Amino acid sequence: MSKREQEAAEYLEKHKIIDLVDNLTSMVFFYRPDRPQEFLIDQLEKLKESKVSQEYSPCLFNESNLDALFGILDPCHQGYITHAQYKEALKTLGVKNFNEFPDGAGEERISQETFRREA
To answer: What's the predicted TM-score (pTM) here?
Structure first.
């Protein structure tokens, strides 16, 4: 790899460009908007707003998707999942930076609310 290629790779990694493009591409395939360019612009604007307000961040999964996943992990409706289930679910969702030890991790009882908040 040339020095220029190495610098480009470091830049992309530093600014998480590949992750951003992967997420946006997945969203386009998932939602299949009629106007993909406008959809992408809207998602980038929402992302920019979320950086300022630290609230909503555009993502592929919404709360109902997270609730459905939690339900699959908790088929007996106990109201909690194990720490291992929590970590594996977030990795499966593609969440790279998450709280490794959220509320309830020590007791192996991670609630749906905690799972949703962390995801």
So the answer is: 0.53
